[in-house]
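As described in the Methods, two query proteins were run sequentially through the folding procedure within a single session, without resetting any intermediate state between them. The first query and its resulting structure tokens are shown here.
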Amino acid sequence: MKVVIAGGSNEAEFIVGMFSKGNNEVIVINPNAPVVDRIGKRKKIAVYHGEPWRKYCLEEANAFDADVFVSLCPIDTDNYASCIMAKTCFNAKKCICLVSDPLNVDLYKKLGIETVISSPYTLGKIIEEAANVENIVRTISLENDQIKVLEALVLSNYNVCNKTLREIRFPKYCSVAAVFRSPTVLIPNGDTMIEAKDTLLIICAPGDEEKVRSFVQKPADKKVTTVKKSVRGTSKPKKAVPAKETKTTKAKKK
């Protein structure tokens, strides 16, 4: 895999160390001379000194046809310009852009960057999910938002709990790919029983997340049991009806 790492400092050095192992081709471009020297000496790799948002720098660094282009510059616009240059002029398959301003996350995605990462934005999402019970279903996007992967925690009061997948009959617009049951991972089939505290890995198409969320979180039907009161011994005793006197009983009285 060909990886281009543009800009950054400590984070760039860490990523270089990760991808230097194996058969990966790692190209490092950095506008900061001290960082260039440090990464080159510590990681024993050639580091190109230049500004990654300039076309001639990418040409000289041979940044063509990168599988992944990562821009870690301290200024958001520099990262955006580097990624757009790599994508449009150098055929980068996937660009990852680091931003400081969380407001730029959605903006840069709309402008054509596949992956935009912001620490405050990510932290805010984590806090939001932890604080909101309804967000117990977490959504992950894959392949430029063409596939949605949901992680759904099953609670004991859900309708899907203590039933097999065959009994649950998940809708056709989603599929359960795996069941995380600590400490194991199950590849489910129709006979797999879903238990409380299981985490379901569900795949669906964009736009179906809310329907999947509602289906998984549907509460179980409460069974109402009626107790019939026994009528035995509760009826009032019948009064004895005196027998009619016959001629024989009248004669005996006399």
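Immediately afterward, the second query was submitted; its sequence and tokens are:
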Amino acid sequence: MLLRDFLSLTGGSLIAHRLRTFLTTLGIAVGIAAVMLLTSIGEGVHQFVLSEFTQFGTTIVGINPGRTTTHGASTGVFGTVRPLTIEDTEALKRLPFARAVVPFVQGNAEVEAGNRRRRTTVYGAGPEMPEAFSMHVQSGRFLPHDDPTAPRALAVLGSKLRQELFGDRNPLGQRIRVGGNRYRVIGVMEPKGTVLGFDLDDTVYIPAARGLELFNRDSLFEIDLLYKKTVKADSVVAGIKKMLIARHGREDFTVTTQEQMLDVLGSILNILTFAVGAIGGISLLVGAIGIVTIMTIAVNERTSEIGLIRALGARRSQVLSLFLGEAIVLAAVGGIAGLLLGVGIANLLHLALPALPVHTPWFFVVTAEAVAVLIGLAAGVLPAQRAARLDPVEALRAE
């Protein structure tokens, strides 16, 4: 059988049954579109979360009170022999690889300026926070290097909180109340936006020791250490553990590197992307069943045609190739339509909802089309084999 005849027979059959061809390709198109849409959203969320998580750099180590147990849970503040303190922070600053060490305590409190009040997030932090987290002061300055255990009552406002409390007035030097205590505003931070669900602009920063007093806590929530890029993370962790064990007498804390956080986060997000893709894959299965059904019907309808082709000298392998070719063309065309539909809907969703992250890598596009072709090949095997095995004489007798 000449290639020209092969293409003519394949194309002619598909064109002759336009409605059947359309419905079959539509089934594959819907399946591919569902997979592309869901995986694009899943990958978009993946990329968004990782970018949000890494915008502060990858050389940060977090130290939390309580040692992580073998069961994967931290004993927390209540299970530790000694809490993480301001003194621990000062000791960690003496490590040779430490660029910045930031004590952290967090809570909610009412902030009052004049006759305006707002309940917001309060961060008790250290003066090196802007360096550690790549944040910048818009006006004034950040918390100074006071006595860490008895700092002055100074505050720095997030850009949104500054607008809510002072409007267009200059807040520098003004007095505010945080949780009932008076503070003097010495700075306003540049807009940072929302990071992993936390609005860093709707907040106020006060010294960590004052935060401990405000929230009546003995232990810091966390100590973050920014280390030099030339030092390996393992050496940093070893140095931190040696210092704190010497101070606490035992390892009653947990040290987590940024690489460990990203590994865990990446694994969770990969599972999420795979899960949403698998849900969309159910539609592909439906499309494959449609191809099997349509090709089986086609074999029954074209029995006499198959007999004629075989009587004219076509081999079984050529008849097999003919029907497999039809199935692959149906799946490939449906796959291309599904790709265009899925990517188009994903982009329209992003335009309608800019906050929804959408990302479609070329790897997904190529893989989706390859999967569509493989589905057509697999779904067409049984009907094509049935057609190839028909006896020419018996096939010619069929009506």
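Residues 3-52+264-397 form one domain. We note this only descriptively and draw no conclusion about the first query from it.
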